[in-house]
Amino acid sequence: MNLTSEAFVTRAWRTVLVLLALTLVTMSPAHAQSTHIQPKLVAESAAPAPGSSTTLALTMAPEPTWHGYWANGGDAGFGLSVEWNAPEGVTIAPFRYPVPDALILFGMMNHVYEHPYALLAEVQVDKSVAPGTDLTLSGVANWLACTDKVCVPEKAVISVALKAGDGKIATAERTRFDGWRALLPQPLDRHGSWERRGDMVRFAIPLPQDTALDRPHLFLETDNLVDYAAPQKFSRNGDWIIVETRTKGDAAGAVRGLLKLSGGRGLTVDFEPEAVRLSGEPIAAAPNAIDMTLFWTALSGSILGGLILNLMPCVFPILSLKALSLARSGGEAREAKIEALAYTAGAVLVSLALGGILLALRAAGEQIGWAFQLQHPLSVLVLLLLAIAITLNLLGTYELPSFGGGQALAGKAGAAGGFWTGALAAFVATPCSGPLLGAALGATLVLPTWAALPIFGGLGLGLALPFLAIGFIPALRNRLPKPGPWMVTFRKWMALPMGLTVLALFWLLDRQLSGSSVVYPVTVASMTALLLGAYGDRQRGKSSKRLMFFSAVIFSIALAGAILQLTSRDFGDSPAATSASKSFSADALAKARATGKPIFVYFTADWCLSCKANEAGAINREAVQEAFDKAGVVTLVGDWTNGDPVITRTLAEHGRNSVPLYLWYAPGAAKPEILPQILTPGILTEKTDR
Question: Is the peptide bond preceding residue 377 cis, with omega within 30 degrees of 0?
């Protein structure tokens, strides 16, 4: 071995560093497991021949809900880099990336991999390397791992043992690497062209007309040229594909990009700054363009779901108010139309407001979903006080101004009453909307804001359709009973469902506080009833100024205390799962799947009446639990009562932003089966028989 002393020392130090890196990898399992994307370096041939090359693969395995990035990560990411420690005579080419996916989060475009992927690089061994030489490679890899809420820079020591040899490749390894190579984009044999025109940038790609294109997308390796999140308009002009999008930046000269084709295939294209041909016949929209079929389907579903909501227990107590209002109108066309339009305006505007707040909070990074307003005790307290006020009004304890005097104010009072009744109906309808609107509201996760908002508005429109029909169709309006003494009795009977609503909200508030003091909320509720009672006495001519004053003082103190209490504490912990089940988490699900047993996962909330109906009528039935025990079913419960970012992301992964959601994992199945949102014992027991 003819080595100079300097070369010998250099090689010795390199060997020591390699051994140190391997030792760190071996002795630091906790660090390796702490990364959300697990890297592993493998070689196609462990014995590359001198004067030849072999291929390295760096496999990256993201955890569920996590993703890695392409070479150009887009608006909010970056690719992988490696600081290599390579032996003398070994040269490592840059990694080549497979075709990525386009992912828009909060208005930003990301070029990502949400599944396991492999980066490939060629390793060249110099012909001067002696056979049998240790060529072990090591390095420090850095990358970015993200979910839709958080990003974490990660690093790890990677290494692979190589020794100069005959270059033999095992059949299994060749097959495995061929599979990874098939996912790499292929270079286009001709260059394309690009140019700026105002605030637009245009690309021309030479591509034969018979090349299949299914929702193509152009990824640019060159940064600082286009607005990544802007829609891409594709058209065909003969054997050329023309791509137009919005410019952003001042890049110049040659540009490199990747055109994603059908089936996940791709072509790398070098663009020269030249004049671009005219646009031609439009072809498939870019992935970030709106899917109009999805939009119209979701809008129709939300209107239909809102219509059916009128029969649900969440809305029925509020409808009692509307029934009284319609009866009072005596079938008069003008008043009926005014109230119908006002009710519709209230329902639609509140639905739009709730949807707008939901979309805004999600865009700001919050993990929330539909019915988010019931996930905080303060919102429940407001609803509780409102329900108490409505119940006492229906009982005749006091009168609202709109119920009293004056023909001159009748029209104005009717419109105001109709508006606020519709607004309240839409506000409290959300707990019941899950089973009816799961798919429609889930579509708002993937649609742009301008297309998502009408879907929320459709819920309010559907909710108001019966009253619009009564207001504008005389035949329906004439069937309403005429005003009379029966209205007093009917009004008091309608206090019953509102009173049950008060009890339900008390129960929910107690559950959300999870054992903490309910003195302030109970005091506020009690003083609300006392204050309204005193107000009613004043309306009837009884003197109770002192009682009203003291009631108002105590009410104000209790309300301030309740607001401070409910806004200063963290109510994020969900109630524990029952003894027959376990709380849902990603770790709990992974452990359950490792057992090979069937798994039933259900997501619920205390304010979701449909969830509770399914639990009482199907899940917790004795026959179902016996069948589950016999089949060894593992049950996991995700409680969304107080909101939970993990559950919100899981719902979104399955196209939902509301509960209930029921998942069945058969043993060995790669993906779960989504069960119907209205369960029966038969549906669940049938699963255990398979």
Answer: no
Domains of the chain: 5-184 (2.60.40.1250), 192-282 (2.60.40), 292-376+400-485 (no CATH), 582-688 (3.40.30.10)
What pLDDT is recorded for position 441?
A: 57
Secondary structure element (H or E) that encloses residue 29, with its range: helix 29-34
Instruction: Kindly state the tokens that stand for 332.
Output: 């008069």
CA distance 14 to 85: 8
Which residues partner with 142 through β-bridges?
81, 155
Confidence of residue 29 (pLDDT cuts 50, 70, 90): very low
Residues of the chain above pLDDT 70, percent: 72
Q: DSSP per residue over 449-509, as a string?
A: HHHHHHHHHHHHHHHHHHHHHHHH-HHHHTTSPPPSTHHHHHHHHTHHHHHHHHHHHHHHH
Instruction: Tell me if 42 sits within 8 A of 105, measured CB to CB.
Output: no
Query: 3-state DSSP call for residue 632?
Result: coil
The CA distance from 364 to 642, in Å, is 19
582-583 and 634-639 strand pairing: parallel
Whether the predicted model's global pTM rises above the 0.85 cut: no
Each residue's pLDDT tens digit, 543-584: 666 666 666 777 777 677 666 655 555 444 444 444 456 888
* Tens-place pLDDT, residues 103-138: 887 678 889 999 999 999 999 999 999 999 999 999
Rounded Cα–Cα distance for residues 447 and 291 (Å): 8
